[in-house]
């Protein structure tokens, strides 16, 4: 590209007029920016905004987050999904409070050593909070760079990722790296979109090699996605004589770790739903149950698979309750479920019950 500096100036001028009004752009507080970047890792901007306000209202400082229990953090995070993000935030906050005087570190090496902070998040914090010259290469920036320079190699390959990072770094001419990163992100989010990009409205149109070649929708090159598998899961609704229901807490290092659920889980391919439910309850709690009527089924999608969750009325028949393949169990009145963090799928079952 002949004059990348001129292209960047046009993009920055476009950004000054068209930039999105987002709450985390009104601050250089590294804790606020860290929280926003973690939330944005797997969640759309419009969805994040109310969660961002709610989370910071409850945990306004690193210290307040560090002092909270994991259950409080998960409950505040509830319904945003990808709960490992919340667990990592909590663990990292405690590390910062204990070992770093409560201050989010300002070096790449320190940030990358904290739980849940990868290369992108570290670079974003350094740029947006500390004004350092680090490109924040998210999906939007990756797409813009690939199209500007007509990168034909798969972005899944390490050498392509390195090339994109080098090109993005070279593009930071501005004395304000945060402004550069926000501008490229907004360009990717609103103009240089994955499908049907608005090329006539793009400030980089005259310098974009992909547009010149008529290949803007063919870039970036990615691996073909595998079909998303569908799995069946079960949930046992087990009541005591007072009408309280048995719920259990998921192991921290599993899917949806730390959240509560009804006993049950994935069924094997050779099992019936009832057989799978009996097996999982025995593995989790050490008790034998009788599966009675089917109560409800709900659909839910995760990133890499979809599920149908089937809830059954069950009766506890044999054995003594034990904490086996779970963290804890509790008998709870359904009216008190609002105080527990549950997954969306579990909440759907609760609503139907």
Helices and strands in order:
Blueprint: H1 4-18, H2 30-40, H3 45-58, H4 62-67, H5 70-77, H6 84-99, H7 108-112, H8 119-130, H9 139-148, H10 158-171, H11 177-190, H12 209-213, E1 230-238, E2 245-249, E3 260-261, H13 273-285, E4 288-301, E5 306-318, E6 328-332, H14 344-352
Parallel strand pairs: 1-5
Antiparallel strand pairs: 2-3, 2-6, 4-5
Helix pairs in contact: 1-11, 2-3, 2-8, 8-11, 9-11
Account of the 3D structure:
There is one protein chain. α8 packs across α11 (177-190). This protein has 2 domains: 4-218, Orthogonal Bundle (Endonuclease III, domain 1), CATH 1.10.340; 230-352, Nucleoside Triphosphate Pyrophosphohydrolase, CATH 3.90.79.10. Strands 1-5-4 form a 3-stranded mixed sheet, sandwiched between helices. It has a 3-stranded antiparallel sheet with strand order 3-2-6, with no helix packed on it. Helices cover 43% and strands 14% of the residues. It is α+β, with helices and mostly antiparallel strands. It has 14 helices and 6 strands. It has helices spanning 4-18, 30-40, 45-58, 62-67, 70-77, 84-99, 108-112, 119-130, 139-148, 158-171, 177-190, 209-213, 273-285, 344-352, and strands at residues 230-238, 245-249, 260-261, 288-301, 306-318, 328-332.
């Amino acid at each position: 590209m002949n004059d990348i500096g001129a292209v960047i100036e046009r993009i920055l001028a476009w950004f000054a007029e068209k930039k999105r009004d987002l709450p985390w752009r009104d601050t250089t507080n590294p804790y606020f920016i860290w929280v926003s970047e973690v939330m944005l890792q797997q969640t759309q901007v419009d969805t994040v905004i109310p969660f961002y306000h709610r989370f910071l209202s409850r945990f306004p400082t690193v210290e307040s987050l560090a002092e909270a229990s994991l259950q409080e953090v998960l409950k505040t995070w509830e319904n945003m999904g990808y709960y490992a993000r919340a667990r990592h935030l909590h663990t990292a906050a405690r590390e910062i409070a204990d070992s770093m005087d409560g201050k989010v570190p300002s070096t790449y090496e320190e940030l990358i050593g904290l739980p849940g902070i990868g290369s992108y998040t570290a670079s974003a914090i350094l740029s947006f909070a500390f004004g350092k010259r680090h490109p924040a290469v998210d999906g939007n920036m990756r797409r813009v760079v690939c199209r500007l320079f007509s990168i034909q190699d798969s972005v899944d390959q390490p050498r392509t990722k390195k090339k994109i990072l080098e090109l993005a770094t070279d593009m930071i001419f501005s004395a304000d790296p945060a402004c550069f990163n926000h501008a490229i992100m907004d360009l990717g989010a609103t103009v240089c979109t994955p499908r049907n990009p608005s090329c006539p409205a793009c400030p980089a149109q005259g310098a974009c090699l992909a547009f010149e070649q008529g290949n803007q929708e063919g870039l970036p090159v990615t691996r073909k996605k595998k079909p998303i598998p569908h799995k069946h899961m079960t949930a046992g609704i087990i009541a005591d004589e007072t009408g309280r229901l048995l719920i259990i807490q998921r192991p921290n290092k599993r899917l949806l770790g730390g959240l509560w659920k009804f006993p049950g889980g994935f069924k094997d391919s050779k099992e019936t739903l009832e057989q799978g439910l009996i097996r999982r309850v025995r593995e989790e709690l050490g008790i034998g149950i009788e599966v009675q009527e089917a109560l409800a089924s709900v659909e839910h999608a995760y990133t890499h698979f979809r599920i149908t969750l089937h809830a059954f009325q069950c009766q506890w028949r044999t054995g003594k309750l034990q904490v086996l393949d779970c963290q804890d169990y509790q008998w709870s009145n359904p009216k008190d479920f609002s105080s527990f963090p549950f997954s969306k799928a579990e909440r759907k079952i609760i609503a139907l019950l």
